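Replying to the earlier thread about multi-chain prediction with a worked example.

Input:
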Amino acid sequence: MSDDCIFCAIVDGEIPGEIVYEDEDVLAFLDANPLARGHTLVIPKAHHETVSDLPGDLGAAIGRVASDLAPAIESAVDADGSTVAFNNGEAAGQEVPHVHCHVVPRFESDGHGPIHALFGSRPDLDDEEIASVGDAIRDAQ
Ligand code: AMP
Ligand code: ZN
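Result:
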């Protein structure tokens, strides 16, 4: 529990949430300002800020719940698919510093495009640059 964290307050029942799933470690509730009907947030009950801060199997547990909930959410609002994503860190647009996975129902006709649409243009990387980025990531683990 972190003071002043709105999602910790939902976990603790201090503020209301439209809860759609709960187990020992994970809670899922409807987004209060949804991007689409059925927009759901899946969170760890414990306060952790980003995906990389999640200890042990908690990241896997959140992924499992999001995977299991997505078809139920899609079915409940008659969606054709869903975007399942984390805004991971402030630079990526994360506003609530308690890690959460968005499950946003998608409709054939919604016109919002894929996650790729966030990025306007793509960097022009040649094979050597791609290989060097691969090396850097392998080295950083
Ligand atoms: P992000 O920008 O990834 O941090 O997303 C935060 C999300 O939390 C937004 O989609 C908000 O609409 C949602 N949100 C903020 N406060 C609440 C709340 N009290 N209950 C449910 N959802 C909330
Ligand atoms: Zn929190």
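The mean pLDDT is 97.

Feel free to reuse this layout for your own posts.
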